Amino acid sequence: MVLQLRFGVCVCVGLLVLVPSMKADVVFNPFVSSPPGAPIGFSYAGDEFVGTIQKDGTGVMYSTDLTGGNVQPFAPTVSLAPNPASEHFIASSLGLGGFPNRDLYVASGNGVMHVTHTGSSGNLFVSGLVGDVRGILFDSVGTFGFDMLITTNAGSIYEVDHNGVVTPLASTGEDTEGLDVAPLGGNLGAFNGDLIVASEGTGRIRALDPISHSLTVFATVAGGEELSVVPLNLGASGNPVEGMYGADYSFDVVKADASQFTAFKGDVIVTGEFTHGVSDIHFDGTTFVVTDVGHFPHQPEDGIFVTAAIITGGGSVPEPGTLLLLGTALAGLAGFRYRRRTLTRSSGK
Of 30, 114, 200, 259, which sits most exposed with the smallest number of CB within 10 A? Predict the structure, then answer.
C-alpha cells in the first residue's frame, strides 16, 4: 500500500487508519560529499567519524573530521570477512560496560572485528554467530547492562559483554538489521527500555524485552533499514555534531540537524531502504502511529543518530544514584510487563 507523504498509519488490532501528520518534514543535506566508494556504514568516534564502503577484505574503512571533511583511509590493513552485498556495519564503543572508549567494531562475516581508535590494529572480537552480522549497537540506556547488541541476517539477536562472552537473546526468524534501545520514559509505552529492531524484508518493527527476552511486533515500516530512538535530552550538549547521519548509497553521507527532531523526542525514527522514506513511530497512549516525515535523496543504508548521550558517554560511568534509579525502573517495568504481556504477547515471528 502506497501512502502519501504527510500522512500516518495508525495500527490498532489489525485496523489501519490514516491520520494527518502535524510534524514538519526532515530535510537531509550532504555531509561527506566524496567517500572513497559506495558508502554503507557510518559511526561517530569522538574526535572523528569512521565509515565503511561496499567492499570486503582490506581498505573498507575511512575517516572524516567532525565536519565531514578531510577524508582519509582508516585501518587500511584490517581485513574484513565477506558479508552479504559486501555491507559492513560499524559502531563505536562508548567507554561503558568495560568496553574501550571510542574503539571501532565492524561486521565481519558471522563475527565482529575490533579495531583500535587509531586504526593501527584489529582483532576478531566475536565469531561463530548464527548468520552474518547486520547491526551492532552499544547500549547507552543501561537496560542491557551497557553491553554490545548484535543482529544478523538469520534473525539472531545477541548480547556481548566486554570480554566477548556471547549471550543469545532471541531470534526473529528473518533478516534483522537496524537496532536501538528505547529510553526509559520515552514514547513507546510498555516498550520503553526495550531493544527495538527492524527487519527490512517484511518491514516489521519489533521490541525485545530486556528481562524476558520476548519479542513483539508493534509496527511496520516498508524496507526498515536504519533505526534510531530519539533521546529525551536531544540537543542538551549544545554540540552542532548532534543529528541523524546516514549513508546515502551509493553517493554520499547525509545529515539532518538535531533541531529537526525536537517534535520526535522519545519516538522511533526508521528509514526505508526501498521507499527511501523516513518514518516516525509514536505511541499515542492507545495505539502506535507511523508517520512519513521525510525522504532520503537516494537509498538509505546504515548510519547513526549522534546525541548528547553518544557525545558525552565515552569514558563516563553512571553514578551509583543513576544505577539505583535504573534498577528501580527495571523492577517496575518487569512487574508491569508481566501483567500486560501475558495477555497480549505473541511470538512476534
Answer: 259
